[in-house]
Amino acid sequence: MLHKNSVLVSVALTAVATVIALGQVARPAPTDAEAKIHRVFEIRTYTTEPGKLDALHARFRDHTMKLFEKHGMANIGYWTPADEPRAKDTLIYIIAHASRESAQKNWEGFLNDPQWAKVRDESEAGGKIVSKVESVYVNPTDFSPIH
Questions:
Q1: Residue of 42, 43, 46, 53 with fewest CB within 10 Å of its CB?
Q2: What is the pTM for the complete model shown?
Q3: pLDDT tens track for 12-44
Q4: CA separation for the pair 27, 35 (Å, rounded)
């Protein structure tokens, strides 16, 4: 009987070792649905210098959104307030990152991208565009239609 138990223990240990080994090998990339489960959203609000909102819109439309995608940030939506006085100087947008850790890496990559530096410098040749930036990271609730 001892021999039979030893064989069962050996088989069980082999199975556990196999599961552990499989967990350490390369896994397929997560599906889009799986990736969306863990992503984090970032709500950003930019206040512009007086008269510079159109310049900020142009920079985002023509360059920034593409650079965000290049650096792993998903563009979710962009808005301006409907009411004065903020309608004249505010851009609010939401981007998504694969995780909070990814957000940090994405921003580092974006801010260190020579293409971004060129775009920023060219767009600010006539003066600074943004006077204030606010950022809030948020997680969707379990009942949120977006994940």
A1: 43
A2: 0.74
A3: 434 433 333 344 334 344 454 444 557 999 999
A4: 14
89, two tokens: 């100087």
Give all strands of the β-sheet with 40-48 in edge-to-edge order: 74-79, 90-97, 40-48, 130-138
Give me the domains of the chain, ranges plus CATH numbers: 32-138 (3.30.70.100)
| Total Cβ atoms within 10 A of residue 103 | 21
Bond prior to 145 in cis (omega within 30° of 0): no
The two structure tokens encoding residue 103: 């957000």
Spatial distance between the Cα atoms of 86 and 131, rounded to a whole number of angstroms: 13
Q: Which residues contact 87 (CB under 8 A, 6 or more apart)?
A: 80, 81
Q: To the nearest 5 percent, what fractions of the chain are helix, strand and coil?
A: 50, 20, 30
CB 106 within 8 A of CB 71: yes
